[in-house]
């Protein structure tokens, strides 16, 4: 380990050490408040648990999620050279530019959800000069992990730290609910490799079609992931080793973002598969930070249920989405607003002089 690399790892350890578990007393009080609301017990199901988790994360019975931000981490992946995607890497930069001008799906949806989209260059091959692009790039795209490690350990740690700092920056700007998103050709391949390494899963069983591979393309993707894992041999007990050997720069930045949000006691929404894999890496590095994560939707990627099971999270949207960009997390925001409105403003059993339901 180089001296510089060691410094970065010490900084990561310092952030991790600052993360405490969410407030369990507040969560209990929040659950009691739900039981007092004049409605069938647990009538809003997982949305009630989500509101109570947000309350516990913020440390107050009446939480505030009025200002929402979605950080969309954009990066390119060298593994695309192995034919694991239908499109070329030039598409990543095109979509990133469109995001800066508000012309992508997440931007359209965020207007309805009253959320602010922050495009983040975590490692695009081509730099985007638009004023709305937030650049935290350490290197321009990863290497092809079939031939060499995706990035150095130092680069992975640097990218993690920049992601964590970006979360802190958004909290300092006054955002009270954060969400993760990603965009980059080839990132379902890197995510599948990471989750197979972390959870010792069969590549054949959990590899999906990503943006829509043909049968032949899917078989190529399976072979590349399997051979890449054999050659790189990541250590599942060391999340950073897994990250730098077969991961992506978007995943590294999101992992830091999740830990950084937890350090700021701010709830953060997991989007789909790639965000969930990043959350799993974050939780393996810092178990306490998982208290601050909320699973929003179960995408159509085969491995996503395994990841949420490992995180002990239950998403409350099941719409078979696989759009990326943070769209699933943004879709959940109006649901959370509505649930919180019921929680805060609806009459209680005492108000309407009706005996409360008993558990």
Attribute tags:
359 residues; alpha/beta; 6 strands; 6-stranded parallel sheet
Percent range of helical residues: 40-55%
| Count of DSSP H/I helices | 14
**Could you tell me the mean pLDDT?**
95
Order of helices and strands: HHHEHHEEHEHHHHHEHEHH
User: How much strand content do the residues show?
Assistant: 5-15%
Strand order of the largest sheet: 3-2-1-4-5-6
The major pleated sheet works out as:
6 strands, parallel
Taking pLDDT < 50 over at least 5 consecutive residues as the criterion, the unreliable ranges are none
What is the distance, rounded to the nearest whole angstrom, between the alpha carbons of the first and last residues?
A: 55 Å
Shape: globular
Structural class: alpha/beta
Work out the radius of gyration. 20 Å
What does this structure look like?
By secondary structure, the protein is an alpha/beta fold. It has 14 helices and six strands. The chain has a six-stranded parallel sheet with strand order 3-2-1-4-5-6, sandwiched between helices. Strand 5, helix 12 and strand 6 form a beta-alpha-beta unit. Helix 1 packs parallel to helix 6, helix 7 packs parallel to helix 12 and helix 12 packs parallel to helix 13. The protein is globular. The model has no long low-confidence stretch (mean pLDDT 95).
């Amino acid at each position: 380990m180089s001296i510089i690399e060691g410094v970065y790892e010490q900084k990561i350890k310092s952030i991790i050490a600052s993360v405490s578990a969410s407030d369990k007393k507040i969560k209990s009080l929040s659950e009691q408040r739900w039981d007092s609301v004049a409605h069938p017990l647990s009538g809003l199901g997982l949305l009630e648990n989500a509101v109570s988790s947000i309350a516990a994360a913020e440390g107050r019975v009446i939480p505030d999620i009025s200002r929402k931000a979605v950080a969309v981490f954009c990066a390119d992946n060298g593994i695309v050279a192995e034919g694991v995607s239908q499109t070329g890497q030039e598409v990543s930069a095109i979509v990133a530019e469109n995001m800066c001008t508000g012309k992508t799906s997440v931007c359209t949806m965020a207007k309805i959800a009253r959320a602010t989209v922050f495009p983040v260059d975590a490692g695009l091959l081509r730099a985007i000069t638009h004023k709305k692009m937030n650049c935290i790039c350490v290197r321009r795209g990863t290497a092809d992990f079939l031939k060499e490690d995706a990035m150095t350990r130092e680069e992975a740690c640097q990218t993690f730290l920049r992601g964590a700092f970006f979360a802190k920056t958004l909290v300092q700007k006054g955002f009270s609910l954060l969400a993760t998103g990603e965009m980059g050709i080839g990132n379902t391949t890197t995510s599948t490799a990471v989750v197979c390494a972390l959870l010792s899963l069969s590549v054949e069983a959990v590899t999906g079609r990503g943006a829509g591979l043909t049968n032949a393309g899917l078989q190529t993707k399976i072979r590349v992931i399997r051979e890449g894992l054999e050659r790189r041999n990541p250590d599942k007990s060391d999340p950073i080793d897994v990250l730098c050997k077969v991961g992506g720069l978007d995943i590294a930045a999101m992992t830091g973002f999740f830990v950084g949000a937890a350090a700021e006691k701010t709830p953060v929404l997991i989007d789909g598969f790639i965000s969930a894999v990043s959350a799993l890496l974050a939780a393996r590095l810092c178990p306490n930070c998982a208290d601050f994560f909320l699973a929003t939707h179960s995408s159509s990627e085969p491995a996503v249920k395994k990841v949420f099971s490992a995180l002990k999270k239950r998403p409350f949207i099941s719409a078979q989405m696989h759009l990326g960009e943070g769209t699933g997390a943004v879709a959940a925001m109006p649901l959370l607003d509505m649930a919180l409105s019921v929680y805060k403003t609806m009459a209680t059993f005492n108000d309407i002089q009706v005996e409360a339901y008993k558990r």
